[in-house]
Amino acid sequence: MALTHIIELMGLSDLSFTPDGGSAVDIFGARKMSIEFDGVAKPAEGDDKTLAYNSAFKGAKVSFEAMAVDLEALSALTGQTIVDSGSTPNQTSTLSIKAAPAPFGVLKGTGVIIQGAGTLPAEVEFEIEVFTVIAGELKISGGFEEMWLISAGGYAVPNSSDVIVKITFKETAS
Q1: What angle do CA 79, 62, 22 make, to 5 degrees?
Q2: DSSP secondary structure letter of residue 90
Q3: CA 169 → CA 2, 9, 97, 124, distances in Å?
Q4: Which of 12, 21, 44, 125, CA to CA, is 20 to 30 A from 85?
């Protein structure tokens, strides 16, 4: 039986960012991911009417949210380095976010599937090969009696094969 092409996603089980030239960094506590496609559109007009409507995908605005203040993830998303110093009981880990270009790399998310009958995928993977962090959309936020969150946004542009986002249903989880 063929793998179904329709599933119900119930969550986000994994999210990672691999900076260009670096190693994959898990974004701990990932809980939301959004992909909003961007494009251009223009009517083709003639004979005093609209004859056709031309539209093309150009990229995608991507955002995500995580439930933990994770220095490793922030380091990868800002392109900055964590400095560890001291010894127990006086250790410190410091991430100084300086004025610098925002990094780009690969963003991957894995969706949680509601199980049911039939040949269902074990997981769904969203892969964005050319993802650039939008510096002004990286936020660390929280408040009184609230969990602190990291949220970030970026932009996906087509890779060399014109792929913006690759969505893969996998029968076996990786």
Answers
A1: 30
A2: S
A3: 12, 11, 37, 5
A4: 21
Instruction: Give the span between the Cα atoms of 9 and 117, in whole angstroms.
Output: 15
The model's pTM: 0.87
Q: What does the buried/exposed string (b/e) look like for 144-166 if buried means 16 or more CB atoms within 10 Å of the residue's CB?
A: eeeeebbebbbbbbeeeeeebbe
- List Cα–Cα distances, 134 to 24, 93, 123, in angstroms: 19, 25, 28
Reference 24, options 94, 93, 80, 105; nearest CA is 105
Domains of the chain with bracketed CATH: 9-35+54-82+92-170 (2.30.110)
Residue 146 has pLDDT above 90, yes or no: no
Taking the C-alpha atoms of residue 157 and residue 104, their distance in angstroms, rounded to an integer, is 11
**If phi over 0 gives left and psi between -120 and 50 gives alpha, with beta otherwise, what is residue 5?**
alpha
Which residues face 169 on adjacent strands?
Answer: 124
Q: By CB neighbour count within 10 A (0-12 exposed, 13-18 middle, 19+ buried), where does 44 fall?
A: exposed
Which of 173, 170, 172, 174 has the alpha carbon at shortest distance from 5?
170
CB atoms within 10 A of CB 33: 18
pLDDT digits (tens, 9 = 90+) for 12-47: 999 999 999 999 999 999 999 999 999 999 999 999
